[in-house]
Amino acid sequence: MPKVIDHDQRRREIVEVAKKLIIEGGFEAATMRSIVTAAGFANGALKHYFPSKDSIIAATFESVLQETSQRMSELDPSLGPLESLRGFVEAAIPMDAHQIASARVLLVLWEHSVANPDLALQYRDLLTSWRAELTSRIAAARGKGESVDAPAIGVLADEIIAVSIGANVTSLMHPVGKVAGRYRAYVDGLMARIGD
Q1: Nearest to 157 by CA among 138, 184, 178
Q2: Which of 46, 61, 142, 194 has its CA 20 to 30 A from that of 187?
């Protein structure tokens, strides 16, 4: 009886291998040959799952973005608006070793997306949906009946996005977890401002 292969699982395995190679050696380390070798596949086997390195990179980018989205979606629905916002912000800021490793992958892929319009569009779409979700959560947390389009709400959302992206870069310049306390202090201060 022929072996049944779970193609989606194989794709996920390939993406995990690409992530690991990027974390360890940057974008250049994730060649088709190195991915095949690290995944333990025969030469040419990747073509059954991904037609090119760019398609693997796009899937890797999507995987990292989905991890962040999943952390955000797993927040306790019984939380009040301010604590729900806190959890949403903390999910985007690298506080632990896994989030910091993901930040390394994102940094590499952000650079690659400058020359890859599909990746750039993918990230812009994420930023657009992220900002929309933030404005909704900020308006609810402020509890003043403001529209999500109110200028003050947009300014706060843009600040959070900028700080989160900056934190992803900064976390890579320090030992793992070294600056997590600063990020927690920022989130505490942010919640105090929003809750007033």
Answers
A1: 138
A2: 61
